[in-house]
Write a structure and sequence with these properties.
about 70% helix, about 0% strand, 14 helices, disordered N terminus, mainly alpha, 2 strands, single chain
Length: about 280
């Protein structure tokens, strides 16, 4: 078996450098676009000949998400520092709890709790063959596209970052849980929920990025031991670095794009990809 291809080794999948580069590019490119990174990774894993529900493969893809999260930390470093100061100020005094930074940060913190709880309670289901199947991916890509269209049509975009509330964080955080279904898209779910809450598109997108930090970091750290078991360290490092570089460019693109464009622009691609996936499954 070539070094770059996935193969079975001692009951676990062996990922090569080529696999790592491909999956790193897919992760970095799709993690923050509303097209579903998990769905694309599932498709890419299938094309690479990897077992999509193999524990070492699912762990590997969870760990390389850390590269994408590192890109968020770097891109929003100044904002994160400002929110941290606002959060600390809110803990120290009642006056500090009146600031926009305190409310926004608390919305992110509390909004991150639902996916943590759901992820732990349904961990086996999330990593299982049903949700990781191409049929699920194809259906979810198409079905959630309708929600994105509805969200844009109903959006008032009357509220900015200074108007984000704790209730917004909790509701958008609950929507983030739906993205545990491959094909839905975490950013597609959170941005859509933000728009339905009357938040403007850029703020909803920024909030989506910040909500990703706890969720994806926790997933990466939790899966790290599994990713390192039976998998060479080299591919893990390569996949994470590639994910970081591509994700940084993807963040810059999406923020610029949503400033003047609707997320409905991604719907034709989602629907076409979902239809192709279902068609391929039907004939194989």
């Amino acid at each position: 078996m070539p070094a770059g291809c996935g193969a079975s080794r001692g009951g676990a999948m062996s990922l090569g450098i080529v696999d790592a580069v491909v999956l790193g590019v897919v992760e970095g490119l799709t993690e923050f676009l509303p097209v579903s990174s998990t769905g694309h990774l599932t498709i890419a894993e299938g094309l690479l000949g990897l077992e999509v529900d193999d524990p070492s493969v699912t762990a590997f893809t969870a760990v390389i998400q850390v590269g994408a999260i590192a890109a968020v930390f770097l891109y929003f470093a100044k904002d994160i520092a400002r929110f941290f100061r606002g959060f600390v100020g809110g803990l120290r005094s009642a006056e500090g709890r009146q600031t926009d930074d305190w409310r926004f940060t608390l919305a992110v913190v509390l909004g991150s709790l639902p996916i943590g709880v759901v992820g732990l309670l349904f961990r086996d289901v999330i990593k299982g063959p049903v949700l990781r199947s191409l049929v699920t991916v194809g259906i979810a890509l198409i079905a959630w596209s309708a929600v994105m269209v509805y969200a844009e049509r109903r959006a008032t975009q009357e509220r900015g970052e200074q108007d984000v509330t704790i209730a917004d964080g909790l509701i958008i955080g609950l929507a983030q849980c739906i993205a545990l279904v491959p094909g839905v898209s975490r950013s597609g779910a959170t941005i859509s929920a933000g728009l339905l809450r009357g938040i403007d598109r850029v703020t909803a997108t920024r909030l989506s990025f910040f909500l990703a930090i706890p969720a994806l970091t926790a997933a990466g750290v939790t899966e790290l031991p599994s990713a390192l078991e039976g998998v060479d360290l080299g591919p893990v490092i390569v996949g994470t670095v590639v994910s970081f570089v591509v994700a940084y460019a993807s963040i810059a693109f999406l923020l610029k794009f949503v400033a003047s464009n609707s997320i409905v622009a991604f719907v034709p691609y989602r629907v076409a990809l979902g239809a192709v996936v279902l068609a391929v499954v039907a004939v194989t």
